[in-house]
Design a protein that fits this description.
Chain lengths: 357, 339
C-alpha cells in the first residue's frame, strides 16, 4: 500500500489571526481511494481541502503530491480539481461552456472538447442541457454540472467541499450513490469534506474524523463506527450512550452500578474509562434477567425503529428497538460483551470543553 | 439680487401639507387597512407630475413653437444652422438687394453656421474622453477596493465617498484655486524649477475638472458589482487552470460588465450636459453644449426659450437612448446605476 500514496500531508500547521485551525496534521491518501474528512463545522476539514487545492498555504508543513512537494505551486498548476460548496458555476456561461472551461484553457481542439463535454453531459445525465443557462437549472442539476466541470479535466484527485449540502434529503441520498458509482467507474481519487456522518459512512473507503484542527481517528467506516477511539468520535458517528466507568480488570468493566463482561483488555486494573454503547445494541429483556433495570420514560416512533429513553436510576439509556414497550413499564437491559466499547477518557488526551459533549 | 420671499399663502400651503401628512400617518397607524398603497404613492406621483412630467412636456411644447405659440420646426432648423432665424428675419427683397450689390451671405454674416452642431460634437467628444479616462482610472481602483485580500479596501471606499458629500460646485472651485496661477500646483512647479504653467482656462483644465468630479460615479457601480461577486468563482476559475490574468478576463471582466455599463452611463450623461465646470475651469473660453443651453435660457432675447428647448430636447433624446441601451445590457440594474 505504501507505494500507492498519492497525497501526503506532513505536519501541516495553519492559523488565522492567532487561532490554530490545523494543528500539525499528518495524513496520506492512496490512489483511487474515497477519503472523507468528517467533523463539525470549524474543525479544519475545509481548510485542509483548500490547502490541497492550493487556495490556502499552510504556515508550516509540506503537501506531497505524487512524490513532489507542491506547497508553493498555484492552484492552476495542480492536477486536482474542486467541486465547490455552492457549485460556483459561471453565471455568464451556459452549461456546455461551463464544462468546457478547463479544456479551452488547455488549447484543445474543438472536436476533442465537444467529444469530452458530450461524454460528461452523458455521465451526469444531463444530455441535451448544453445550451441552457446555469441559473435556470435546479440545485441537483447545478451540482452535477459542477462535478462534470471538474471531472472533464481528468484530475488525479477530485476535491469535494460539502457538495451535497444544499440539496434536499432525497436528492442527497441519490447523489451519494451516484457519486460513489462515478468514483468507482472512473477510478479517480476522491477527497470529500462533510459534516454529515451518514454521508461519510455511505460513500467512503476511509473516514478521517477531525475536531478542533486535529485528526481524532482514521479508519474504514465500519471500524470507526464499531470501534470509535473516544467519546467524541462515538457521539459524532451515530448516536450512542456514553457512560463513565471503571475497568476492574481485563474483560470486566463497571458502570451504571453493575459489572459487565466485555472483550477489551490492556487498560490495567481500576482504570477510569468511557464506555460507549450504541442504542441499537441494547437488548430489552425481562426485568429479572437484565444486567440493569429501569423505567421507560418516553417512546418515540422513528420509522424503522422506536427510540426509548430509559431511566435506570443513576443513568439514562437511549435504546433503539423494533419492538415497543409502553411508557412507564419496567424493563431489564442487557448488552452482549462484544457491543461494549471501552475507551480512554477523553479528558486525558484532550482537556477541552468539547469533551463534555 | 434679492432672495425670493415665501408669500404668506406659501406658509399656509406648507402647514396644510405637513398636517395632512401627519394625519395620514396617524390614520395609517390606527387602522392598518385604512389606506392602500396608491394613497401613499399619491404625493410622490403628484411631485413627479408637477416637477418632471409637466416640464418635459413644456420642453417639447416650447421646442415646437415660436414665441407666439404657433407650431413650427424653426427651432430645429436653427439648431442645424444657427443663422437660420437671422436669415429669415430679413425680408427677401432686402436680401436680393444686398446680393445684387455683390455681397454674399458670408459677407453678410448670414451663411450657414454650424456652431450648435459643432458644440454638440465637441461636448460628446469631451464627455467621451472623460468617460474613457474615468474607466481606465476607475476600473483598477474599484478592483483594488473590492479585493478581499486588500485590507485597506473599505478605507479607500470611504476616501472616495467623503468628497462626494461636498457640493460639487464647491469642489470645482477648490480645484480652480489649486490650478490657478498662484495656486498650489504652480507653487510646486516653481519649487521644482519647472516654472509657472498655465493650467486654467483651457480645454485640458475642463477635462481635468470633469474627470475629478465624475470619477466616483464610475468607481462605485463597478465596485458594487465586483464586491458582490462570489470570490469562489475566481477560485473555481483558478482551479480549472486559469492564471491570475486569465481569471480576470475570462470571469471577472465579463461578470462586471453591468457595473461598467452603469458607470459609463453615470459619467457620460452628466459630462455631456455639464456647464459649470467648463465655465469655472474654462474661463469662458471653452463652450460645451450645456453652456449653450444655459445661455439660450438666460439670454434676453425672447425667442431663445424656444431655441433652448429644442437643444434640450435633442439632449434628452440622446440621454433616453443611452438609458434604453443601459436597460438592455443591465436589465436587473445590478450595477446600481440609475432609474
Amino acid at each position: 500500500m505504501e507505494e500507492q500514496r498519492l497525497i501526503t500531508l506532513e505536519d501541516i500547521y495553519k492559523q488565522y489571526d492567532g487561532t490554530t485551525v490545523l494543528d500539525h496534521i499528518n495524513l496520506y491518501i492512496r490512489k483511487k481511494e474515497f477519503v472523507t474528512l468528517l467533523g463539525p463545522s470549524g474543525c479544519g476539514k475545509t481548510t485542509t481541502l483548500r490547502i490541497i487545492g492550493g487556495f490556502e498555504t499552510a504556515d508550516s508543513g509540506r503537501v506531497i503530491f505524487d512524490g513532489q512537494d507542491i506547497s508553493g505551486i498555484p492552484p492552476y498548476k495542480r492536477r486536482v480539481n474542486t467541486v465547490f460548496q455552492k457549485y460556483a458555476l459561471f453565471p455568464h456561461l451556459n452549461v456546455r461552456d461551463n464544462i468546457a472551461f478547463g479544456l479551452k484553457l488547455k488549447k484543445m481542439s474543438k472536436a476533442e472538447i465537444d467529444r469530452k463535454v458530450d461524454y460528461m453531459l452523458d455521465l451526469v445525465n444531463l444530455k441535451g442541457y448544453g445550451k441552457r443557462g446555469v441559473d435556470s437549472l435546479s440545485g441537483g442539476q447545478q451540482q452535477r454540472i459542477a462535478i462534470a466541470r471538474a471531472l472533464v479535466n481528468e484530475p488525479e484527485v477530485l476535491l469535494l467541499d460539502e457538495p451535497l449540502g444544499a440539496l434536499d434529503l432525497k436528492l442527497r441520498k441519490e447523489m451519494q450513490l451516484e457519486l460513489k458509482a462515478m468514483q468507482q467507474r472512473l477510478g479517480i481519487t476522491f477527497l470529500y469534506v462533510t459534516h454529515d456522518q451518514e454521508e461519510a459512512l455511505t460513500m467512503s473507503d476511509t473516514i478521517v474524523v477531525m475536531q478542533g484542527g486535529r485528526i481524532l481517528q482514521i479508519g474504514t467506516p465500519k471500524s470507526i463506527y464499531d470501534e470509535p477511539k473516544n467519546a467524541f468520535v462515538a457521539n459524532f458517528i451515530g448516536e450512542s450512550n456514553i457512560f463513565p466507568g471503571t475497568m476492574i480488570r481485563d474483560e470486566l468493566v463497571h458502570f451504571c452500578g453493575a459489572d459487565f463482561p466485555c472483550v477489551d483488555s490492556g487498560f490495567g486494573e481500576d482504570h477510569p474509562v468511557d464506555v460507549v454503547i450504541r442504542p441499537e445494541d441494547i437488548l430489552l429483556v425481562g426485568e429479572d434477567v437484565g444486567q440493569v433495570t429501569g423505567t421507560i420514560k418516553s417512546v418515540l416512533f422513528k420509522g424503522v425503529h422506536y427510540e426509548m429513553i430509559i431511566d435506570a436510576g443513576h443513568s439514562i439509556w437511549k435504546v433503539h428497538s423494533t419492538t415497543m414497550q409502553p411508557e412507564g413499564s419496567r424493563v431489564g437491559l442487557a448488552v452482549v460483551p462484544f457491543n461494549i466499547h471501552i475507551m480512554h477518557r477523553m479528558e486525558e488526551e484532550k482537556p477541552q470543553e468539547e469533551a463534555k459533549k | 439680487m434679492t432672495n425670493f420671499k415665501v408669500p404668506v399663502w406659501g406658509y399656509w400651503m406648507m402647514g396644510i401639507g405637513f398636517a395632512a401628512f401627519v394625519a395620514m400617518l396617524i390614520a395609517y397607524i390606527h387602522k392598518n387597512r385604512g389606506f392602500r398603497r396608491p394613497v401613499f404613492a399619491s404625493p410622490y406621483v403628484l411631485w413627479l407630475i408637477v416637477f418632471t412630467v409637466i416640464p418635459c412636456f413644456l420642453v417639447a411644447y416650447f421646442s415646437f413653437t415660436d414665441p407666439q405659440g404657433n407650431f413650427t420646426f424653426d427651432n430645429f432648423k436653427n439648431f442645424w444652422d444657427s443663422n437660420y432665424n437671422a436669415r429669415k428675419a430679413i425680408a427677401p427683397e432686402d436680401l436680393k438687394m444686398y446680393q445684387d450689390m455683390g455681397l454674399s451671405l458670408e459677407d453678410l454674416g448670414l451663411a450657414r453656421d454650424s456652431i450648435n452642431i459643432d458644440t454638440l460634437v465637441f461636448s460628446l467628444w469631451m464627455a467621451f474622453l472623460c468617460t474613457a479616462i474615468c474607466l481606465l482610472l476607475g476600473y483598477p481602483a474599484a478592483h483594488i477596493m473590492a479585493d478581499r485580500e486588500f485590507k485597506l479596501g473599505p478605507t479607500l471606499v470611504i476616501l472616495f465617498v467623503v468628497p462626494m458629500w461636498m457640493n460639487f460646485l464647491l469642489r470645482t472651485i477648490a480645484l480652480m484655486s489649486l490650478m490657478e496661477d498662484g495656486g498650489l500646483l504652480n507653487t510646486i512647479f516653481e519649487w521644482l524649477g519647472l516654472g509657472k504653467q498655465k493650467l486654467l482656462n483651457n480645454i485640458p483644465a475642463v477635462q481635468v475638472g470633469m474627470i475629478y468630479n465624475f470619477l466616483p460615479f464610475m468607481v462605485f457601480p463597478i465596485y458594487n458589482v465586483l464586491n458582490k461577486m462570489d470570490y469562489k468563482l475566481s477560485e473555481a476559475a483558478m482551479d480549472l487552470g486559469c492564471n491570475k490574468w486569465q481569471v480576470f478576463y475570462k470571469v471577472t471582466l465579463p461578470l462586471s460588465v453591468p457595473g461598467v455599463v452603469s458607470g459609463i452611463t453615470m459619467v457620460f450623461m452628466p459630462a455631456v450636459t455639464t456647464f459649470y465646470i467648463s465655465r469655472l475651469l474654462g474661463g469662458g473660453k471653452v463652450q460645451l453644449f450645456g453652456d449653450l443651453i444655459e445661455a439660450k435660457f438666460l439670454s434676453t432675447s425672447l425667442n431663445e426659450w424656444n431655441g433652448g428647448s429644442a437643444l434640450s430636447l435633442v439632449m434628452m433624446i440622446l440621454i433616453l437612448l443611452s438609458l434604453g441601451l443601459l436597460n438592455k445590457v443591465d436589465p436587473d440594474n445590478e450595477g446600481g446605476g440609475m432609474v
